[in-house]
Predict the structure.
Amino acid sequence: MNQSIEPPRLGRPPGCLTSPLSRWLRIEIQQAKRDNWTCPDAFYMLTEQNRKTPEKHTFIVGAETADEVWRQVCGDIKGLKVGYAYFRKLWREIDKN
């Protein structure tokens, strides 16, 4: 057997759109759009509901939020960091659909 060949990586790649985090964000984005929020306003609202970070355009998903949605998103999202660039990317993808 050739030792130089790496075994295939299992699981989905980081940032995959089917992660529990992206499922939760898509739910939040769809609700924000129904309520006529803008992308920056929706992100700011989520920042206020979760744990702020020293970085201006990032928040960490809080325990309360994670506990409320873990069944909906099929996973634990507590402590995951969400940046504005990723949020905006999902916002724009939902615009396309």
